[in-house]
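Good day; I would like, with your permission, to put a structural problem before you. A protein sequence and the structure tokens that stand for its backbone fold form the material at issue. I would ask you to consider whether the tokens describe a fold that such a sequence might reasonably adopt. I set the record out below, with my sincere thanks for your time.
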Amino acid sequence: MHTSRRWSDLYDKPLNNVRRKFKVHVEASTRCNSRCPLCPRFIDLTPVTNPSLVLDEIKFDRFKLWFTPSILKDAHSFHFCGNFGDPTACIELDKIVEYLAENSSSKIIIRTNGGARNVKFWQTLGKHLNSPDRNVVFSVDGLEDTNHLYRREVKWNNIIKNIETFVAAGGYCEQDFLVFKHNEHQIEEAKALASKLGIKKINIKTAFGFDWESDKAYVPVPVLDKNGDLTHWLEKPDLHKRPGYSDSKFTKEYLLETHQTSTKAFLANPEVPREDSITAEFANQIERSTIRCIAHSDPYPEFYLNPDGTLAPCCHMAFLKQAKLPTDDHHTKENLKPYTDLNLNHNSLESILKVLDSKIADKWNVSHKEGRSITCSKTCGVRETNVRTEKNLTGIKL
């Protein structure tokens, strides 16, 4: 079973005779200045960009056509935080932010590693993103000696300079701190630095990718260089270990060999498509779960905007449009076609939301064979072992 909420409730079911507002999760660009090991834009924990990734970004003139001032009246928020790129890699992001700030009352949040762009850019953002409802969240995972272990190639001095420039221009900012074993001892020191820089709050966040749900085990992740050789390990911090889970029965040597075998083969011939799959047992298990859609977790429905104007139900399903990237959810990928039906350059927002209802929300009570999305079951299926449905974000006020 699932909640009865649908994306088109925005139009079909006004709340107290007032049309509901919508939230937009925005992939402003699929380019990035960082090479984070767990990011899907790279080949298997290496810093090598997957050649199948479609590089794109939102253009300002196109954005204005998608979200006219009349449409913006119904916008609750715009959250710039993508799957494949950093929002600041969008060349015209400052123009888009300025347009939203001047033509809507919506919330505006940008999440970034903070290491790119120039003084003028950050001054513009500081002018318009200057309150708790309009702000920048800098994703900084540690201090100068640890941040680069995950945020590869992000220059520490650039981060500090950009935060200082943004705050000096009147900007309001927070910090996301992904906790790993290598940086959990730095939380208090990071809080002190954040306070000194003018950051209002630190969000201590769980990093996904270390929990094997089927075995209830923590699995360390090897970070690889461009040749597929080990540089260091990422591991689950003690702070976020969960009841009922234990360390993996597999040794680091075994895990490294397993990763390297497939990674080096792919690096040698990256044009050959690879496929992901899940076991029939796990598919049956997640199918029995109750779907509580994260995109409908508050009164306002949210959808995901790709750079080309194609909408997806959420960030967990946006990757399906990347035709050559591996997925374990082929039937949802096919079910969402033709993607032009979901594109703001071809259809209205209202019609697209109705398509999302018919292809996604209306199938949450049926089987996978009958059209229920595996991605929905896997990500938003409520079950004992699903780490993603747990509360995993703690705000620490400074």
